[in-house]
Structures are given as C-alpha cells and as structure tokens.
Write the structure tokens for this entry.
Amino acid sequence: MSLPIAVLISGGGSNLQALIDRIEQGSLQASIQVVVSNVPRAKGLERAEKHGIACRVVPQAEYSSRQAHDRAVIAILHSFGVQAVCLAGYMRLISPEFVQAFPNRVLNIHPSLLPSFPGLHAQNQAVDYGVRVSGATVHFVDQELDHGPIIIQGSVPLYPEDAEEEAARRILALEHRIYPQAVQWMAEDRLRIAQGRVHVLSSHSEPADTSSVFPCLINPGLELGF
Ligand code: GRF
C-alpha cells in the first residue's frame, strides 16, 4: 500500500529527486501521482518526466488571484487522487483554502532550523548571522510562511570560512535525507499532532531504542571538562 502524493516545485527539484530515488529504491512507500510547477521550465519537470511521472504547469500569471491559482492546483491534485502534498522548493505561499483541502497532509521542507530564518535565502541568512549550527526542517504547513508543527529537523555545522554555496550544499544534502523519512512516516500513518507538537508513533510495539533518536551536534566541539 503506497501513499499517493503530489510534489509541488518551482525550480531544480533535487528534493523531488530524493523522493523519487527513495521510492525507486523501495524505502519510501509512496507514489508520486503528479508533479506541479508554477514555473514553466523548472528543471524539476525534466526530472519527473525522466521517471515517467505526470507533470502539470500552472503559472500564477494566468490567474486573477492566489485563491484562483490555488483552486486550479487543488483541482489537479484531486483529479490525480492525491492524499498528501509535498512542497519541495515551491516558491508560493499557499492559501488557507489549500491547507484546508488537505488537512494535516501538506508538508514543506525549509533549509534552516525553524523557527530561525524563515523566508527566502535561509542558508544565507544563517551564514550572515554567523550561527555555528544550522540545518533543515520538515514541517506540516499551516497558514503562516515556513510555519507549522515540526516533523523532523537535522543539523549541520556552519564554519566562519563557509562560502554561502558551501553551506547551502551541506544543508541540501541533509534535506535529501530527512524529507523522504518524513514522507515515509506519513505513508505509514505514524504522525500525530497534539497541541502543536508532532509525535512519531513507534513502528514496533516495544519501546524504540532512543540512543540513536537524539543526535546532538555541537559546533565548535566541547572541550574536556564540559
Ligand atoms: C530547498 O532548499 C528547500 O528547502 C527550499 O527550496 C529548496 C529547493 O531545492 N524550500 P530543490 O528544488 O529541491 O533542489
């Protein structure tokens, strides 16, 4: 039983590729019914086509309002029988109507440790600020930008000498690992939201081994005695 999903993109689609790869490897029990792009020649569309995945282009310029554009996208998603929606570099704020069309079924990935650095160029924001640890977040989408219950976060070190592209590359590699994991949890129906927090149900009846569940990255590393 695989979860029918849609992936919404605007650009390169490397996260889309990570989802495709995991599905093809058999570790992600989902099937991408359709890829929707608001940008006509987004590179991600080529990736989808290469794997025989249906694509639809819905440029917002052809619609009078955000709501009208979103309605067109929602109609496509319904026509493909989509049950969950993955925003993967989709450079559009979605309307409340969109969120309500798929309650607790819209996921987003953002290249920072939210709630730090929401919005555009999050990696550059982190580098400019001089933080020593940044990362990526997969979260449920609510009405606010880059906001909603957090499913998974991963962290990577940032170094003062990092060029912005280098930091972005490091974070992106992490994104490609955590997004498929989050979608797999959704496919297994193991995500529950209570009081704004996401709980990942254990896949076994016995308690999970938590020794590997709380990875900790501290940068610069602690010195002896701490
Ligand atoms: C990623 O950094 C993602 O976190 C952000 O947009 C970027 C999309 O990259 N929302 P790609 O198109 O998946 O390569």
Q: What stands out?
A: The first strand starts at residue 3 and ends at 9. The helical segments are 14-25, 43-50, 66-79, 96-101, 122-129, 164-187. The mean pLDDT is 93.
